[in-house]
Known about the structure:
Distance between the termini: 113 Å
Subcellular location: Mitochondrion
Number of helices: 15
Region (Disordered): 43-62, 415-443
InterPro entries: EF-G-like_DII, IF2_II, P-loop_NTPase, Small_GTP-bd, T_Tr_GTP-bd_dom, TF_IF2_bacterial-like, TIF_IF2, TIF_IF2_dom3
Oligomer: single chain
Strand order of the largest sheet: 5-6-4-7-8-9
Structural class: alpha+beta
Protein name: Translation initiation factor IF-2, mitochondrial
Family: Belongs to the TRAFAC class translation factor GTPase superfamily. Classic translation factor GTPase family. IF-2 subfamily.
Number of strands: 33
Strand content: 25-35%
Shape: elongated
Helix content: 25-40%
Amino acid sequence: IFLFCTKIFCMSYGLYFHRCFHASPALLARRSNDDPIQLKAPKKGKFVKRNKTTPTQPPVEAPYVPPRVKRAEKFMPDKIIDIFEGMTMVELAKRSGESISTLRNILVNVGEKVDSEFDPLSIDIAELVAMEVGVNARRIHSFEGAEVLPRPPVITVMGHVDHGKTSLLDALRQTSVAAKEAGGITQHLGAFVVGMPSGASITFLDTPGHAAFSAMRARGAAVTDIVVLVVAADDGVMPQTLEAMAHAKAADVPIVVAVSKCDKPAADPERVKMQLAQEGLPLEEIGGDVQVVEVSAINKTGLDKLEEALLLQAELMDLKARVDGSAQAYVVEARLDRGRGPLATAIVKAGTLVSGQHVVVGAEWGKIRAIRDTLGKLTERARPAMPVEIEGLKGLPMAGDDIIVVESEDRARMLSSGRKKKQENDRLTKISEENTVTTQDPSEERVELPIIIKGDVQGTVQAVTDALKSLNSPQVFVNIVHIGVGPVSQSDLDLALACGACIVGFNVRNPPSCLSLAATQANIKIKLHKVIYHLLEDMGNLIVDKAPGTFETHVAGEAHVLNIFELKGRSKAKGDDTKIAGCRVVDGRVSRSSTMRLVRSGEVVFEGSCTSLKREKQDVETVGKGSECGLMLRDYIDFQIGDVIQCLEQINRKPKFISSESGAVRIECY
Length: 670
């Protein structure tokens, strides 16, 4: 009632209070300056009215920074893209990671005119563009619309060294190649066609079994259809047997096991089968799909069963190949002939290789001048699964290179030049990465052994190179400065003289007498070998001699102090009074020039040089075990009876050259 009466009173006098009387006086004082309700628009919380009294500042002009374009690395040796005939520039740009404008500029530089990015490109041009942007290209060929016919199988014979691989092939083709091989072991990759008694023909590849030829075995597994794993019945599973199994599994190639030397008294085929099963090979006897045949090359037993097993496996695989169109081939081996120049042994994988075609082999190119079969007879064309030898190349290719047919000489030159440029860029990139990663402790002494390698064929040169590189050690760096195919020449001698290298020749003829005389006068070593065992042993011993070794302290002798003699009244010229230790040598020998260590109660008291060593009043250099002597140490006279004086010598321990039974070699440092 009081509040109502008060409100009426105020209104009668024209007063209006919009505040509530229950508010505190402090709150009323704080809000006394507020504007009346609904007289002014409320302020927006985010925007503030600009004060007109402050002058407007001009905007600051920031420099324009263009967005950074994400580009792929220029040289990527590990990146591989698939290319095919008729692919467009858009597809190539997606796979290579480059922009279409970049690819268009490259096409202009190589002289190729493309109106639209959707126009088809030839597979050669696509490879050139891929190499220019720094990626590797893998050619994918389509059999669509081509004539596909059955072809003979390509079979690679693999196994441990001296397990009878070549003898088995000799028994199959009625030859005696094994008897003519140096050292009785295979050191080359051979390819030939064998006509079987059933009338079928099979292409065989004979691979070396020595540990140094691992790359050859890998190439044989990469080009083959079936692997014949030869295991000696009297020897069992060995390291190269396991390696051959690994190569076959990596290439996804079926295996047929041939247990050889079953005619020997110590033969145990069942033990071999058990070892293979323990290594994870699924044999037919235990429910697997790997056939096992027991053979003897000497008695020629089991050969018909081996032929039956191989033909059955080939029939199950249903081997077919394209016979028309440009050929695709694989280089098995390459060598340099004095009269015919570079020669490449190849196996045709698809298509037909015709004499007179322009080909690109790896980074080399040429026009096929002649094609010869395994018997050396000239032929005009080579069909799938046929091993041939081609001549007419401008340079020597690498074993394992692919052979592709191109339409013209200009295209062959351009593709070869692009591949050489790509190889050089990859090589320089690899060297720079190795220099970045490799760190050498400055305290360690490491000498360099430069080597020049010459061989009869490209495959053996690579094998010798890999084997010698495996002899690298913390003390000796094996630097391969040059490799080549052919005999030792004057240019090799000049290079060896310039860099102080040793020349290693494998299966090459002796150099002329004038070159040998010049090498002797220039103190250049030329080491020629025909057997890989002897070459690796000789080079291993050379590396051991070249190594600086590790110096270690060795106790050469030990003497016990039995009595002490004191010398007094010496002249000033001879110095102060001194003491002589009378000793008996109980072990080894004591030398005056060596360092002496005095041990008392198991603790080293003094270590220094010997100033005098006498026996029966005579100065001597060495005192042997069981003899008595007197000695003086420099700057030490506090001898006691019962002290032990040890004679210390520095011994240089050289590395060891170790060769295993499988042929693997290494240098072991202490």
